[in-house]
Task: inverse folding
């Protein structure tokens, strides 16, 4: 569906804010939860925090089980979670900016009024 990383960013930028119900509060809560629950524990685990080490262990175990069942690469399951969550937090913030504040976006050479973009959910 997408040809490269930037097309993934643009595609989800177009729809993610709409998936939040066009609510800045929901979007910011999601980004905060992504950072606090999925990135911060990795930093605290590196500093030796026992609760964070346990949390990282749970995140890693659940990702290994999921990735193995889907046939995905297990090294991505183990090592890429904080990067993936940072990527999605960036896309969420970008979506709120581009489609919410700017109100217009460009997708595949066309410009859209973002208020009319729907998620299809």
Result:
């Amino acid at each position: 569906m997408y040809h490269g990383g930037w097309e993934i960013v643009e595609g989800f930028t177009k729809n993610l804010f709409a998936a939040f119900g066009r609510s800045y509060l929901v979007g910011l809560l999601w980004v905060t939860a992504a950072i606090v629950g999925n990135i911060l524990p990795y930093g605290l685990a590196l500093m030796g925090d026992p609760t964070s080490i346990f949390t990282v262990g749970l995140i890693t175990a659940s990702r290994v089980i999921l990735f193995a069942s889907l046939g995905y690469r297990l090294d991505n399951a183990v090592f890429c979670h904080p990067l993936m969550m940072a990527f999605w937090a960036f896309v969420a913030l970008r979506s709120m900016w581009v489609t919410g504040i700017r109100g217009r976006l460009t997708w595949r050479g066309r410009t859209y009024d973002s208020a009319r973009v729907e998620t299809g959910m």
